[in-house]
């Protein structure tokens, strides 16, 4: 099964491609406000580099949110339309989970499982954030994806023992967290591969059923 990953949640165009469980490659570029303009040609060129076309795609995995409102609409609308046009299914992947999975995998492979806290600035002193870690071989969330005041999120992180404190990953570190001495691994490494990994354990849905998860209303 050929799976195409699409991410526009973080003001980038991120793409990944896998054949069954083998990741063939990924692509990411800063797109700012030009995601709608750049996404179709980026997908076509990306697939072409592996000698595939959109008609060859069986499954499209797209970030569902949270994230930046316009980017989420661009990514999900395009994914749904593309899936409809080629007869593919879609998988909606939580953005924060896709951000965390590569780091979780890197440290687990090294024999040092960690807890990872992905975050996205949400304005007005708040963030979209979650906290993921391992319970045995299963990834669990001690904080489910949330829209939370940055100060409250700082308290969540601060409640962990210093030696087990989550690794922060995201696109920017809020001043509230920097002032408390926290640092960040940024940007999230290999996010398209995180989307592809998450897609393996999520149920495909009909493209007409896909919905964005904003966690708070636009405005």
Can you tell me about this structure?
It is a single chain. The protein is of the alpha/beta class and 219 residues long. The chain has 2 domains: 2-94 and 191-209, ATPase, nucleotide binding domain (Nucleotidyltransferase, domain 5), CATH 3.30.420; 96-185, Nucleotidyltransferase, domain 5 (2-Layer Sandwich). It contains 6 helices and 10 strands. The radius of gyration is 17 Å and the shape is globular.
CATH class of the largest domain: Alpha Beta
Radius of gyration: 17 Å
- Helix-strand topology string: EEEHEHEHEEEHEHEH
Could you report the average pLDDT, rounded to the nearest whole number?
93
* CATH-scheme architecture of the largest domain: 2-Layer Sandwich
Structural class designation: alpha/beta
Query: What general outline do the C-alpha atoms trace?
Result: globular
Largest sheet: 5 strands, mixed
SS elements, strand count = 10
Number of domains: 2
Catalogue the unreliable spans: none
Strand order of the largest sheet: 3-2-1-4-5
| Count of discrete alpha- or pi-helical segments spanning 4 or more residues | 6
**Share of helix among residues?**
25-40%
- Estimated share of beta-strand residues: 25-35%
Give the CATH topology of the largest domain: Nucleotidyltransferase, domain 5
- CATH homolog superfamily of the largest domain: ATPase, nucleotide binding domain
């Amino acid at each position: 099964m050929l799976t195409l990953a699409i991410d526009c949640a973080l003001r980038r165009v991120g793409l990944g491609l896998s054949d069954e469980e083998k990741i063939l490659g990924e692509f990411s570029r800063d797109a700012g406000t030009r995601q709608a303009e750049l996404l179709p040609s980026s997908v076509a060129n990306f697939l072409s580099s592996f000698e595939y076309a959109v008609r060859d795609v069986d499954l499209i995995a797209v970030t569902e949110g949270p994230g930046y409102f316009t980017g989420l609409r661009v990514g999900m609308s395009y994914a749904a339309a593309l899936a409809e046009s080629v007869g593919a299914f879609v998988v909606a992947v939580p953005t924060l989970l896709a951000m965390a999975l590569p780091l979780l995998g890197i440290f687990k492979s090294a024999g040092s499982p960690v807890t990872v806290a992905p975050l996205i600035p949400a304005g007005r002193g708040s963030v979209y954030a979650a906290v993921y870690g391992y319970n045995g071989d299963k990834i669990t969330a001690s904080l489910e994806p949330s829209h939370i005041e940055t100060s409250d999120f700082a308290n969540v992180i601060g409640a962990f023992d210093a030696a087990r404190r989550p690794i922060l990953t995201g696109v920017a570190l809020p001043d509230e967290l920097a002032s408390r001495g926290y640092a960040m691994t940024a940007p999230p490494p290999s996010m398209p591969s995180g989307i592809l990994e998450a897609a393996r354990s999520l149920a495909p849905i009909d493209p007409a059923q896909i919905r964005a998860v904003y966690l708070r209303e636009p405005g």
